[in-house]
Backbone:
């Protein structure tokens, strides 16, 4: 299914929210795989525009010291 949410598991249960049944497109967190990639790329682009010290802080705090935005065309300060 083209518009399937990225968070659905093999049993069509949500891996993100604790709900009995996926509400589908009406869910505020619903994103297709394409939308997820676009959103992640926008976030990486935003981080890549930060100063190197800010990037390092973000990497340590949220990415285990890694800077994945550099692999996706981000800044290499």
Residues:
């Amino acid at each position: 299914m083209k518009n399937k949410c990225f968070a659905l598991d093999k049993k069509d249960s949500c891996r993100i929210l604790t709900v009995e049944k996926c509400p589908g497109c009406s869910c505020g967190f619903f994103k297709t795989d394409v939308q997820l990639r676009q959103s992640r790329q926008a976030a990486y682009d935003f981080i890549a525009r930060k100063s190197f010290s800010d990037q390092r802080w973000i990497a340590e705090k949220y990415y285990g010291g890694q800077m994945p935005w550099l692999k996706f065309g981000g800044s290499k300060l």
Remarks:
- The two ends are 40 Å apart (CA to CA).
- The CA atoms of residues 30 and 75 lie 29 Å apart.
- Helices lie at 33-48, 52-62.
- The chain has a mean pLDDT of 86.
